Amino acid sequence: MDGVHDMGGKAEHFGPLPTIDPQEPVFHAEWEGKAFALALLANRVSGANLHAFRHAIERVPEPEYLSGYYERWLASAEILLVDSGILAPGAVAARAENLRGGRVEEPAVPEPHKPTMPSGGGGNLRTVEESPAFAVGDAVTTRTSVPSTHDRLPSYARGRTGTVTAVQPAQVLPDTAAHFVGENPQHVYAVEFAAHELWGEDAEPFTLTLDLYESYLEKA
């Protein structure tokens, strides 16, 4: 899924990364801690999972997404609560306007409909009976298709060729789990890419390793 969240390798649009202060506090203001707690609670009461939470962050509108880290956590909490029918669309905006002295009719709360999906156990590691399709040393190429749903293949790595350096434990597939249509566990591979393969011959010389699901890959 393309969106403002998928900005890897696009430094020309966003500038260099800021220097990290090793003494930086976890929360710069009290409201950030509250936003963090609200997002975790929204995940719990909406019946969401980690992948659905990431997909909610992907759908945060660009101005809110770029406004700050905890701003997008708060916005994603609202998205999850709307998805599960706990909040009506527009309810938060209406409540905020009324707190400012406006006279906006708040939309009625819909009937909650928490998503459900059979679980193969705790966490995301799973056992897959089929043997891995790729082995260490294999040259693989990533898919070029751009799904409209959640996925974990960065845009800068689509249609690129790399080398498998490790076969990782099988895991729940985020593409389907985020939409509660099944865990569909797959083998996962550590794939090493040369920087010039990802960003062209002018790229700084280094290698980048990505953990990628089997359905993202084909033999080169």
TrEMBL record:
Superkingdom of the source species: Bacteria
InterPro entries reported for this sequence: CN_hydtase_beta-like_N, CN_hydtase_beta_C, CN_hydtase_beta_dom_C, Elect_transpt_acc-like_dom_sf, Nitrile_hydratase_bsu
What are the alphabetically sorted keywords of the record? Answer: Lyase
User: Residues in domain Nitrile hydratase beta subunit?
Assistant: 126-219
Segments crossing the lipid bilayer = none
Molecular function (GO) terms listed? nitrile hydratase activity; transition metal ion binding
Name of the protein in question: Nitrile hydratase subunit beta
In its UniProt entry, the species of origin is given as: Geodermatophilus ruber
